[in-house]
User: Which sequence fits this backbone?
RNA sequence: GCGCCGGUAGCUCAGCUGGAUAGAGCACCAGACUUCGAAUCUGGGGGUCAGGGGUUCGAAUCCCUUCCGGCGCGCCA
């Protein structure tokens, strides 16, 4: 294996060794040639007493081999003991093989982490995969509120994670600028326009957007057009006003996203699908040619009665051919496209642009929409693209345990910007990711700015700052220790790591060695929250080891008059720092060097 | 009525796509600062993994079912 091709994931290395050992057993005739390798796992055991890694190979393969698990385990363990990385291979329980690695295997992993620096954990699993991830996609009818925040942060972190895992990632925002809502926006803005011209518009009528945020749009329109629009019929002013309002809303939304450090590569206009070459109509025709569109009737929906239900023939997509529960309409009664119709065309566009892995991030209220969209993607890509829809649950905004009151009706809601301004970008981002995406999230404005262990953001960042602090202090003892990250890393990478022999130190080394495996698993599952929890655990172990040095001075990171031991421990600190910084970067959270 | 998501310690939540004796934090109790940052740490009690059945070497995890909560159920997006 070429040195620069060495996989950083030690678990993957051992996994390969186990598979090789199985091949050897096949050659000996102990195992049949046709075995299911996919179920063979190499994992960290829950209990450290069980060694460094465990494999279930013997249990999983026992049936195929026609042998008892423990008998097979005995043969396999015998093979593995010959491996230079393996110090011991014990059989336990129903047939686990517990592996203890030689200490050099772990210290070598630490060395690699330090040498790789910011590239440590970067994976190749996604090599060649093109991923399109669509997130936020808030309607351009107003500023972003806290509800949008979670999807924005989640999508952004997932995109970072996939890119780190080697995927070619495109971040996309779908602008819903075609439906009836943006016409309502235009009418609301027109009212503000008249207001800007000095007219008394009174109360905003029911059905229009009442928020003050449209006043600048009205003012801009007045400045641009003077009173000219007042004389025109709606059919003439509406497109003008609509375009202006959408442009200004998108500008505000982009600014909000920047405040959150969320950036997209592509802003895709729904309207462009209709106006530029009628992509929606073409997609429907395309599906019709393939027999997936027909004229028919739908049964009325069960449950909550629809007041104006009218049984009529309509244009339907055969979603049931692709796993949906019912066929779905493509045209409204007035002949215009349904949102679903343009969404099909939109997803076809993603496929046509070369993407084979599609990810959509939606709010929980769109959960019922997943099946039909996946059906549509199947139809429109011939099954050649996969769509994963990630649902982000709602955020309950609290302050000191009490719910923050919001009145959507009156146009009073807490905006994303207000929250970011109050608690900071890092706190918002980390807390939004410190929970599974499909679980409801309590976000307490008072708690996330506390500087204590309660506050995971702070706790993890403090771990990183503390690592830097240790280096600052170490330089006072050993002035030749270079200050820069790269130079320092070069020095500590050659440190005598065999001096790291305290169990807690070795546990930290193992935790660091786990990072590449974590990246792979989190990327495969599309679950960035795993990074946040891992960082919290790593920080926790690091803080604990630091404090242990108070009672047990020989365990301090800096040992006066023992340059070699100090260097070895600096390597450990450097490893912790490297991984904390890397993980925080994926989450889009800053890694401060000091927090005083 | 149907579909999706959830139900794990008093509270808030993890649990690495089926692994070994289910873990953190908060709260509660008892401790550690002349010391590399106490913005930290150590120890303790606390569980019918909502209930029941099944699949198998092995289930919080997969399947069935019941209960509870949230969301959704042409012509909104």
Assistant:
């Amino acid at each position: 294996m070429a040195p620069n091709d060495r996989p950083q994931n030690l678990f993957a290395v051992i996994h390969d060794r186990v598979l090789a050992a199985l091949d050897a057993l096949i050659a000996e005739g102990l195992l049949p040639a046709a075995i299911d390798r996919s179920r063979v796992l190499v994992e960290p055991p829950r209990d450290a007493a069980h060694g460094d890694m465990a494999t279930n190979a013997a249990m999983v393969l026992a049936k195929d081999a026609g042998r008892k698990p423990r008998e097979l385990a005995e043969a396999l363990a015998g093979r593995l003991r010959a491996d230079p990385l393996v110090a011991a291979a014990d059989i336990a329980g129903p047939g686990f093989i517990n592996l203890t690695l030689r200490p050099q295997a772990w210290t070598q992993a630490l060395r690699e982490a330090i040498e790789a620096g910011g590239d440590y954990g970067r994976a190749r699993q996604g090599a060649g995969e093109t991923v399109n991830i669509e997130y936020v996609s808030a309607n351009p009818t107003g500023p972003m509120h806290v509800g949008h925040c979670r999807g924005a942060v989640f999508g952004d972190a997932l995109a970072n994670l996939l890119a780190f895992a080697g995927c070619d990632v495109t971040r996309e925002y779908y602008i819903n600028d075609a439906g009836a809502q943006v016409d309502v926006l235009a009418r609301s803005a027109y009212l503000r326009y008249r207001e800007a011209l000095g007219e008394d518009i009174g109360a905003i009528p029911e059905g229009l957007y009442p928020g003050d945020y449209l006043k600048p749009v009205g003012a801009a329109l007045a400045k641009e057009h003077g009173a000219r629009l007042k004389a025109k019929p709606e059919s003439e002013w509406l497109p003008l006003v609509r375009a202006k309002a959408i442009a200004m809303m998108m500008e505000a939304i982009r600014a909000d996203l920047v405040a959150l450090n969320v950036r997209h590569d592509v802003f895709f206009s729904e309207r462009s699908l209709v106006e530029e070459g009628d992509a929606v109509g073409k997609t429907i025709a395309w599906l019709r040619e393939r027999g997936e569109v027909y004229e028919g009737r739908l049964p009325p929906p069960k449950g909550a009665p629809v007041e104006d239900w009218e049984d009529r023939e309509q244009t339907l997509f055969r979603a049931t051919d692709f796993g949906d529960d019912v066929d779905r309409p493509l045209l409204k009664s007035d002949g215009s496209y349904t949102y679903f119709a343009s969404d099909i065309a939109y997803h076809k566009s993603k496929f046509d642009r070369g993407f084979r892995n599609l990810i959509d991030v939606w709010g929980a209220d769109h959960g019922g929409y997943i099946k039909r969209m996946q059906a549509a993607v199947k139809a429109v890509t011939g099954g050649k693209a996969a769509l994963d829809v990630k649902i982000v649950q709602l955020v309950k905004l609290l302050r000191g345990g009490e719910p923050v009151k919001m009145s959507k009706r009156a146009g009073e809601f807490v905006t994303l910007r207000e929250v970011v301004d109050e608690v900071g970008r890092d706190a918002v981002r980390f807390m939004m990711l410190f929970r599974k995406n499909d679980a409801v999230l309590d976000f307490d404005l008072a708690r996330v700015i506390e500087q204590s262990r309660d506050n995971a953001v702070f706790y993890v960042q403090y771990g990183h700052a503390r690592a830097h602090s240790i280096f600052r202090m170490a330089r006072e003892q050993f002035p030749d220790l270079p200050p820069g990250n790269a130079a320092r890393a070069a020095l500590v990478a050659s440190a005598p790591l065999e001096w790291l022999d305290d169990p807690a130190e070795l546990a930290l080394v193992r935790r660091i060695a786990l990072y590449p495996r974590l990246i792979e698993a989190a990327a495969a599952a599309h679950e960035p929250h795993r990074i946040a929890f891992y960082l919290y655990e790593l920080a926790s172990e690091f803080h604990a080891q630091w404090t242990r040095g108070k009672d047990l001075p020989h365990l301090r990171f800096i040992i006066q008059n023992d340059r070699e031991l100090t260097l070895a421990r600096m390597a450990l600190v450097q490893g912790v720092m490297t991984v904390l910084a890397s993980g925080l970067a994926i989450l889009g959270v800053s890694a401060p060097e000091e927090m005083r």
User: Anything to note?
Assistant: The first helix of chain A runs from residue 10 to 28. Confidence is low (pLDDT under 50) at residues 1-6 of chain A.
